[in-house]
Amino acid sequence: MVANILLVEDEPAIQELLAFNVTQCGYRPIQAGDADTAMALINRALPDLILLDWMLPGTSGIELARRLRADQRTQNIPIIMLTARTDERDKVMGLESGADDYITKPFSPRELMARIRAVLRRRTPQMTDEVVKVEGVELSPVTHRVTAKGVHIDLGPTEFRLLHFFMTHVERVYSRAQLLDQVWGDHVFVEERTVDVHIRRLRQALEPFGLDSLVQTVRGSGYRFSRS
Ligand code: CA
């Protein structure tokens, strides 16, 4: 699963440098030169992480971070703040606005990429390459293999992503809109009914192993992946 990284930076040279490094690391860059453009892009599809420049024309990076944290839909997107400021008070302010991490310019691309990886690992476990096991199900993001009770099962790409998301977020209830955001990356142009279709396919794949009950419907709310 390729992580989409939204780069919000108004200086073209730094924007290009960020995009280059993000691409080199195997992530997909999405570029915005100001907060309004960033919001429009976020409204269409949630990025997996935002690299956010503090000093932007118009709405500042700090203000954008606060807005994202105040909205339920966007509050969990990891944010790394980029800034030329080195003052300790500024750092505290940046983190208080909701940023997960903070990096000062000029930064070394290696350090920046290490921070991106660390934040992604912490905030979005489905973005890592680690094998996950829940009950009798084992999923390997690297080989794209899924086994149920030791037997290989075939899943379509969407069912695979859905299962990976569920297995890294067990016991929590997600609405259809949240699943569209998290698994499809798009809650605007995909119908909520689509979620039900893929949930049904996922259950069908797990059913021969008696594991379909892991995918639970929570009435009026959505779905949950649960051991109980
Ligand atoms: Ca700037």
What descriptors fit this protein?
elongated; 228 residues; Rossmann fold; single chain; 2 domains; binds calcium ion; Arc Repressor Mutant, subunit A; 21% strand
Would you write up a description of this structure?
It is built from eight helices and twelve strands. It folds into two domains: 4-125, 3-Layer(aba) Sandwich (Rossmann fold), CATH 3.40.50.2300; 132-225, Arc Repressor Mutant, subunit A (Orthogonal Bundle). The two termini are 28 Å apart. The protein is α/β, with parallel strands linked by helices and 228 residues long. The chain has a five-stranded parallel sheet with strand order 2-1-3-4-5, with helices on both faces. A four-stranded antiparallel sheet has the order 6-7-8-9, with helices on one face. The mean pLDDT is 89. The protein is elongated, with a radius of gyration of 19 Å. Helix 6 (157-167) crosses helix 7 (176-184) and helix 6 packs across helix 8. It is 40% helix and 21% strand. It binds calcium ion (CA). The site of calcium ion has 5 residues, from loops.
